[in-house]
Structures are given as C-alpha cells and as structure tokens.
C-alpha cells in the first residue's frame, strides 16, 4: 500500500506541480494550494466530490444495512446523503458570486458577522473535521485489520497518515483532484468485477449466487425484518429503512455544510462548473453504495440461507464485515485484496481532503486572522496593502467622492511593473541560491508575508498529518449553541425511554429514535433560532447598509491573486473599474443559479419521490421486478463508470492545451512588440543621420 498507492500519488503530485509551474505559472501561490487555481473542470469536480463522499464505511455499512433492512436499506441511506448533495449547489453558487475570493466558508462568516461568530464556527468546523477524521480512522482500521493478519492499530494508523498527507504536502488540493480521479476509476472497475463474479458467474461454487434468479429464490425464502411489508427483504415498504434515510439527511447535513472539505472542492471550480459538478457527483456517488450493497448484501443473505444460519454474529454484521466476508467467499484471497484496495482508495480521497480542510482553516482563519495578520485592526472594508478605504466600497455607496486622501489607490498587481521586475529578478539563477528581496513599494511586503504563509502552510500540513496517529490512538453563535444543547437534550431524553435508560448509555444513545430526536432538534432549533435572532438583531436599515454588508464579503481577496482574473472569459465585454460589481456577477452567473435550483429540485424529486414511489407500489418484488431493479443499478453503475473514466482526462487535457496555446500567443505577441520597438529605434537613428548633427528630428 505504501509503495503502490503512496508512490503513485506522489508521482501525480509532482506532475501536478509541473503543470502549475510550466503551464499556469502559479505554483508559488498560497491560494493555489487550496483552490487548485480556481478553474477545475466540471467532470473533475464531480469525480472528486463523489470520491470524497465515498468513505470506507460506505463499502462496509451499506451492505450492513442491506443485511438488516433489506433492499430498501442502502437505497434510503444513499438518498439521505444525496439530498444534501443536490441542495449544496444552491449555496455554493451564492458563495462563489457573493464572495469570489474566499477560500473557506469561515472567511465569509468573519466578514459578515464579525469575530465572535467566526470563532464559534471555527470551533464547530474543526470539531466536524475531527469527527469525520475519527470516522475515517475507525473505518480504515476495520478494513485493514479485517483483511490483514495481525495488523496492529499503530501500523494501520501509520499507513493511513502516510496515505493522507504525503501527496497533499507536495501538490496541495490540486493533487487531490488527480488522485481522486484514479481512485474513482479503480473503485468502479473493482465494483464491476464484484457484480460479474456474484451475479453473472455460471461457474460459481455456491448454488445460491452466480445468477440473479438463484439469488432471488434463496432470499425470498428468508424472513426479513418485522418492520418490512410481509417480513420480506425484497420490499421498498420498509419503515426502518425510511427512518434511517431521514436520520441520514440530518446527519449528512453536518458533514456537507460544516465540513470545509466540501466547500474546498466547490471553491476550486467556477460557478457553472461547480453547480453541474455537484449535481453529477450525486448521480456518480449513488451508483457505488446502491450497486455494492445490492450485490454483496443480498449475496450474504442468500449464502446464509444456503448455509442454514448466519455466517456472522450480529456484532460482526454491525462492524461492517459483510462485504469482506463475501469478497473472500466469492474471490478467495484476491477478494480481500480488492476490498482493501477499494478501502485504501476511499481513505486517500476523503482523508487527504480532510487534511487540506483542517490546514486551510488553521492558515486562513486562525493564523492569518488572529495570530499573525499582515495588518492588525484592519476594517473589513479597507485595503490590506495600505489600510485605506477601498475605492469600490465608496463607489458602491456614495455618489460624490470628495475625501480622496482617505481612499486606496494601490495599483492592481496585474498592472504593476515593479512586481513583474521582482518576479523576473527572483527567477534568475543565483550563485548562492539566495533570492533577492522584493522591491515593489506596493506589493513587496505582502509578497514576503505570503512567502512566510506558504512555509507555515507546509509545516501545518505536516503537523496535521502527524496528529492523525495520536488521534487514532486516543479513540481505540447563539442559534447554533442553542441547537447544540437542545439536540443533546433530545438525544438523552429519547435514550432514557429505552430499556435500562441512560444506564446503557453507549447502547441507547445510538438507537434510531435517539439519533433522530437529536438530529431533528439540533437542525430545527439552530435554523429557527438563527433566523429569529437575525431578524431582531440585524442593523440593516436601508439600501446603503445592505450594500456595505455585501461589500464586506466581496472584499475578501488576495491582492497578489485577484479573483476577477479568474473570471476574465465570463466577464468579457463588461465594463468596470478594478472589480466587477455584484450586479454584474449576479447577471453573469444567473443561469448557474437557475440550474442549481431546477437541477437540485428535479434530482431530489427523482430519488426521494419518483423512484421509491414506483418501487413501493410492489408490496414484495417478484423475480422479474427484482431483476429489473438489479439491472437498473448495474446499468447506472456502468454509465457512471464510463463518464468517470473518460470525461475528466478529456476535459483536463483540453484545458491544459488551451492554456498552452494562450501562453504561446502571448509570447509571440511579446516578441512582436519587441521587434516593433527595434524597428522604430532604427528609423529614428536613420532620421537623425539625414539631418545635421546639431539638429533635432522634428518628427518621429
């Protein structure tokens, strides 16, 4: 695993760095580490989001739900997560148009609501990342130890730390996109192998699998959960499965909206690509747990029926050992290797995303904001370079501009000749390897500050990665606060109603209705409390106040990497001073907003209402209906596999080639300008030679 996955990911990281250095020329940029240049393609965004949502637990847990709840279990599990995936584009397109320069969602909270709310949500964000990381470590350890003899906890944690942090340190979030692509390809290939060996294998040594008809006959004879219609595993009329889906909606909302890794993948794409990318990611992700669970979970039930009893105890089923068992039963030792490979792929994508998410919060929201800001006591409407009021802020709110001495007049970095000279000077070979200092009077000090942050970022990623090992060993604002306490109280109240109450704390607090009560109260009270408190405490009295509030978010930017440069193609033809206005951004990306609303609603309707509504019309599936459903999930997986394997490299290569041709045209244009200057100088010299030496040319 270390030599294979780790070595291959490091090679991808080096390749990504080479692309950023020689094609996009932005390798020495703090923001590029966390947004991959801000122009990631649609398909690569979709594949990365789907890969980061595909946890090792999905391989194990989805089959567990099939074993316990029947065919409806993994479907509602997937739907519960997908609802938030389809809603997320609505928020993300607002994020990208209202705060295009933000690199974390916490920066928006800081600009809009101030330091108190920012500190509170920094805590919530880090706790969310901590919980997700613990879940990854537990699932990863279970996967490795179930398939590797005598693997100690320390060994498992060491392997995961290396896989998470190695390529993240070298290539940043951009490498995560590349690695996620190869991970997704491998996961789909292995998924298709499982489907063929379990459902389309006439030479199977087991009589109950190898064919869909044989599997159906075996499962139809087994008594299912009492909550299911006719106590059958082959029905969508399952109250317990639907209940779990509702719980998953609220649980996954925290993972989606409070996890910086979700926002980070979205920040790396433009509004249109981000919206379509998340919608496509939902369709890609659905095909993995639904197909995997229908295949391995149903195979376990069929084999247990053939065996006359369960192969695993209830505790082992809850630990997620169904999928590894079926893999080894069907494929022998190679099956265990395949599951271990899929688990490692899922760990790498999600784990590296969490490492980068935690690092970005520490760099942007803690260190740069509170510990070592470039300019202390800076107002949110002031320029970070000179400390004066930004001109676009005044232009948005005042008709006449009289006090020009209080306004920022800093030259944009893309128009600064001193910056160009600094960059050229520092790229020249030096005998002692010491780069000269920055000389630009406007941006020089901030460039030095950014270099320091880049060094700090590298150490931050290293320490976050190293912290994975002790973390694993340890475990083997007003509305939000109110929701937290109410949710905790609701969970304890519901748990106390089970037998033995809170005496069996660990058992009863994870029961379905305890989790449902806690998540519903946390979500509902937080949402309601924040809305009510905001309505009664906000200070927006008129249009002027509203413009000033939006401008605070709009001003989140890195002066060395202005966000408007990333939207040159979309904003072509529009006239503005230094930055486009909010109205111009809103108009430009209006189609993206409409797509987010319409696409999200239609996708939720398809998965939460239409498909289950059709399947619920059958009390218990007949053999034909079961075959149709299995073929449907398999066909879905094959189509998504083709998209995942073909689309990202096509779009990425096209993007790199397009940038290469742009660079070539710029070089030719620059050479042409130089030649023009040389010709003009020759003309001037010849004109001088035609007149008396004491004369001066009258026309040039």
TrEMBL record:
Q: Organism's domain of life?
A: Eukaryota
Record-level GO cellular component terms: plasma membrane
Q: Provide any one GO MF term from the record.
A: urea transmembrane transporter activity
Subcellular location per UniProt equals: Membrane
**How does this chain sit within the bilayer?**
Multi-pass membrane protein
Main location, first listed in the record: membrane
Keyword Metal-binding present in the record's keywords: the answer is no
Family (UniProt): Belongs to the sodium:solute symporter (SSF) (TC 2.A.21) family.
Spell out the protein name for this chain.
Answer: DUR3
Q: Which UniProt keywords apply?
A: Membrane, Transmembrane, Transmembrane helix, Transport
Organism from which the protein derives: Mytilus edulis
The regions listed as transmembrane in this protein's record are: 75-93, 120-139, 151-170, 177-199, 241-258, 278-303, 337-367, 460-493, 513-536, 594-616, 628-650
């Amino acid at each position: 695993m270390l030599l294979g996955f780790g070595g291959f990911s490091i090679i991808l990281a080096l390749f990504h760095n080479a692309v950023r250095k020689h094609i996009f020329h932005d390798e020495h940029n703090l923001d590029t580490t966390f947004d991959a240049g801000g122009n990631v393609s649609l398909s690569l965004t979709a594949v990365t989001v789907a890969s980061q949502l595909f946890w090792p637990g999905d391989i194990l847990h989805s089959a567990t739900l099939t074993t316990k709840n029947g065919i409806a279990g993994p479907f509602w599990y997937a739907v519960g997560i997908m609802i938030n995936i389809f809603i997320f584009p609505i928020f993300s397109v607002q994020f990208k148009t209202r705060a295009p320069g933000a690199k974390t969602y916490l920066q928006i909270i800081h600009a809009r609501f101030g330091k108190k709310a920012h500190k509170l949500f920094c805590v919530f964000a880090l706790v969310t990342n901590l919980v997700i990381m613990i879940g990854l470590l537990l699932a990863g350890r279970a996967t490795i130890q179930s398939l590797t003899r005598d693997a100690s906890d320390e060994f498992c944690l060491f392997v995961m730390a290396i896989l998470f942090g190695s390529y993240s340190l070298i290539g940043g979030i951009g490498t995560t996109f590349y690695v996620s692509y190869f991970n997704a390809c491998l996961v789909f290939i292995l998924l298709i192998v499982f489907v063929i060996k379990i459902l389309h294998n006439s030479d199977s040594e087991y009589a109950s699998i190898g064919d869909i008809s044989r599997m159906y006959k075996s499962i139809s004879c087994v008594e299912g959960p009492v909550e299911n219609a006719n106590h059958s595993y082959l029905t969508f009329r399952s109250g317990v499965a639907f209940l779990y889906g509702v719980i998953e909606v609220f649980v996954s909302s925290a993972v989606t909206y409070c996890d910086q890794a979700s926002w980070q993948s979205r920040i790396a794409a433009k509004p249109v690509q981000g919206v379509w990318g998340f919608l496509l990611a939902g369709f890609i992700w659905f095909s993995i747990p639904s197909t995997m669970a229908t295949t391995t979970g149903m195979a376990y039930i069929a084999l247990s029926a053939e065996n006359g009893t369960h192969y695993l105890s209830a505790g082992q089923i809850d630990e997620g050992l169904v999928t590894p068992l079926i893999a080894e039963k069907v494929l022998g030792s190679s099956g265990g290797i395949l599951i271990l490979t899929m688990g490692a792929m899922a760990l790498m994508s999600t784990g590296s995303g969490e490492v980068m998410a935690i690092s970005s919060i520490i760099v942007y929201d803690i260190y740069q904001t509170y510990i070592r800001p470039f300019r202390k006591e800076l107002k949110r409407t002031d320029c970070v370079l000179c400390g004066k009021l930004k001109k676009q802020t005044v232009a948005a709110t005042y008709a006449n501009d009289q006090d020009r001495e209080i306004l920022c007049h800093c030259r944009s970095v893309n128009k600064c000749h001193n910056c160009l000279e600094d960059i050229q000077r520092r790229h020249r070979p030096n005998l002692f390897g010491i780069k000269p200092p920055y000389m630009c009077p406007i941006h020089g000090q901030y460039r030095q500050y950014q270099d320091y942050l880049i060094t700090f970022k590298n150490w931050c990623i290293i320490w976050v990665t190293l912290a994975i090992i002790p973390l694993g060993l340890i475990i083997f604002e007003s509305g939000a606060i109110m929701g937290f306490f109410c949710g905790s109280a609701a969970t304890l109240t519901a748990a106390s109603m089970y037998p033995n109450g809170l005496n069996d704390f660990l058992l009863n607090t994870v029961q379905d209705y305890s989790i449902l009560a806690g998540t519903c109260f946390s979500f509902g009270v937080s949402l309601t409390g924040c809305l009510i408190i905001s309505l009664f405490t906000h200070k927006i009295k008129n249009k002027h106040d509203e413009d000033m509030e939006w401008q605070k978010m709009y001003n989140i930017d890195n002066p060395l990497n202005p966000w408007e440069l990333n939207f040159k193609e979309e904003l072509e033809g529009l006239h503005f001073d230094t930055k486009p206005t909010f109205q111009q951004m809103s108009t430009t990306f209006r189609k993206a907003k409409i797509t987010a609303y319409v696409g999200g609603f239609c996708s939720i309707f398809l998965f939460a209402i239409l498909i289950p509504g059709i399947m619920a019309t059958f009390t218990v599936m007949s053999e034909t209906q079961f075959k149709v459903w299995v073929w449907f999930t398999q066909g879905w997986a094959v189509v998504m596999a083709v998209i995942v394997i073909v689309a990202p490299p096509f779009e990425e290569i096209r993007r790199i080639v397009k940038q290469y041709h742009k660079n070539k045209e710029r070089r030719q244009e620059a050479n042409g300008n130089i030649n023009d200057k040389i010709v003009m100088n020759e003309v001037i010299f010849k004109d001088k030679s035609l007149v008396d030496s004491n004369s001066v040319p009258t026309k040039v």
